[in-house]
């Protein structure tokens, strides 16, 4: 009888202990961080200015982030920063890992993608900072070697399941084009359009080779659209294809001006999280700053425009201009959180 009682008491004690264990674990789990702003950059140089200026000193390790950038950095003013790693795969994987992490509550967070890009001389210059309305995927196309393409095709690219380069494809992948919240883009532009942007001696001299504005003028903040693709392209023909492709996919509403690798991938990851109620996709803004021209000035080598892109001197100014352009939006959100908490304010 005593043995039976001991077993019963022991079993009962274990059952109670196991029942209480989840509560003990939960009691020791810190509350999730609730950023007002989550900055998204792609590699260390893009992140460093924000880290230094906003004092993003707290490090939070999140499983699933890039091995190169395994932590989210935050400050005491509810601003955090993700470095995804470069390219589409890193961008999608890191962004989704953050969105699914129980360490963060991102349901009311505003997201700002801020990265460098190639710039179209028809819409900007080295150092230009452009707020995007449309995100267009350039890599989701059929491609022939241009030497094998029909003579009336300007390049070897056509839309998938189309018959020619000027035909809009069926958007079967569902990631070919995304439209950002125009109200947030307008607000971001209004807050930053008078910001003084910087340039280097090299970039100032380089832009003067171009025959027309805005390419040969000092950099300014503007609004135009961004093109993503893992292939870093350069040259007049491919850049003109980017213009046509953007028009096709946006029904002539978009204007291609910056080229980068990641933004459609980052958007898709946030969109999937948004469908689950984990983020609000309408709170995403994208700014890209031109670090080099996507095509050469008249008389300059198409090859050298790619291989010697660093000679244009735009890398450091573009990094600085991302901060100068993006920070007014960040500060407006922080200083007027009651107005921004429920969504982008009207006034």
Structure write-up:
It is a single chain. With 347 residues, this protein is α/β, with parallel strands linked by helices. It has one domain: Rossmann fold (3-Layer(aba) Sandwich). Helix content is 36%, strand content 18%. The chain has ten helices and 14 strands. Strands 1, 2, 3, 4, 5, 6, 7, 10, 11, 12, 13 and 14 form a twelve-stranded mixed β-sheet that branches. Strand 12, helix 6 and strand 13 form a beta-alpha-beta unit. The protein is globular, with a radius of gyration of 24 Å. The termini are far apart. 45% of the residues are buried. The N terminus is likely disordered.
Summarize it.
By secondary structure, the chain is an alpha/beta fold.
Protein traits:
347 residues; twelve-stranded mixed β-sheet; two-stranded antiparallel ribbon; alpha/beta; globular
Topology overview:
Layout: H1 2-28, E1 37-41, H2 44-53, E2 58-61, E3 71-74, E4 79-83, H3 88-100, E5 110-119, E6 129-131, E7 134-137, E8 142-143, E9 157-158, E10 177-179, H4 182-192, H5 201-207, E11 221-223, E12 225-228, H6 236-249, E13 256-260, H7 263-275, E14 284-293, H8 302-307, H9 315-335, H10 337-340
Parallel strand pairs: 1-4, 1-5, 5-14, 6-11, 7-12, 12-13
Antiparallel strand pairs: 2-3, 3-4, 5-13, 6-14, 7-10, 8-9
